[in-house]
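ok so i was messing around last nite and threw this chain in just to see what happens. nothing serious, just curious
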Amino acid sequence: MERNNVVLVDENDNAIAEMEKLVAHEQGRLHRAFSVFIFNDNGELLLQQRASHKYHGAGLWTNTCCSHPQWGETVALGAEERLNYEMGMECDLKLVYSFIYNERVENNLTEHELDYVFVGYSDQCPVLNKDEVQDYKWMNVDETLSDIKNNPSHYTVWFKQAFPELLSKINQ
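result:
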């Protein structure tokens, strides 16, 4: 599915309108998003390196996959579809939490998202969609947290916010 639009929402997740994705990021409009985190049986997180031609976050490391649900699509269905599209994987996903963030990123863009965070467990080997993802790696949690602290510029803004909070929620 093409994901060139976003669903604009208010802070209570009431849908307001649909807007072209780049325009929403240029204007910093609040919109729905999702972030998927896949762990394997060793407790390692599957990270992806975003494709180098992305208009923001190009070449940065981030969670397993992320995108925007489309108008009329549930967030959960969008997350499942995108996991398959970007990483060639299928597994059960569980919504853990959502949060709003508002961060300036490169190219004079703003990420202002109501981000739904999903977790899944799989030992599948990813089959990358090279239009979206240029590389992947499995990393243990402590190594990932340490690398985020030591090399924050290597990671996307949403990943640096979502991952520690996800860990606190799934470890409760």
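not much to say yet. The helical segments are 21-27, 75-87, 141-150, 157-170.
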